[in-house]
Amino acid sequence: MRHILLSGISHQVLTDLEHEKIKTIEIRSPHNFLSVLETNVGDIIFLTSTSGEDVRAGTTGLIARIRGKQVSMHRIIQKTPEFYEESEFQLARLQLEMKGHGRVRRSECCEIGKASVVDADEVRSFEGR
Q1: Apex CA 109: angle with CA 103 and CA 115, to 5°?
Q2: What is the spatial distance between Cα 55 and Cα 104, in angstroms, rounded to a whole number?
């Protein structure tokens, strides 16, 4: 089944999602942010700690359903007598519900400005290799 890919997610976040079953995460990295923009509430996505460039057949991760999505802009202002600096950035918050573990069959990623997509199967039991 085809899923939008979120890559480079920390091991701690994946472990928390695995144990808590529902978790809200913040997405700030540009490659994952572009992927999040292509999703809707109710979509099933694939999360892995592997970097996007290294995702290939056999990469493991978690399969989760998006329960909530929020995109917002934050503004940061730093001011001293010598300088004034203002910056803005966008971030997305996703509330996820874990559905299971998965393994990538095929990766369709890495086009600039496009969502990363993988073809992944749910792994119902662990198999020795």
Answers
A1: 105
A2: 8
Among 7-11, 110-114, 121-125, the range of highest mean pLDDT: 7-11
**Residue 80 has which token pair?**
């001293």
CATH code, residues 2-122: 2.30.130.30
Contacting residues for 83 by C-beta, under 8 A, at least 6 apart? none
Kindly report the length of the chain. Answer: 129
**DSSP strand pairing (84-108 vs 22-27):** antiparallel
Instruction: Give 11-20's long-range contacts (Cβ < 8 A, gap of 24+).
Output: 11/49, 14/47, 14/48, 14/49, 14/61, 14/62, 17/47, 17/62, 17/64, 17/96, 17/98, 18/62, 18/98
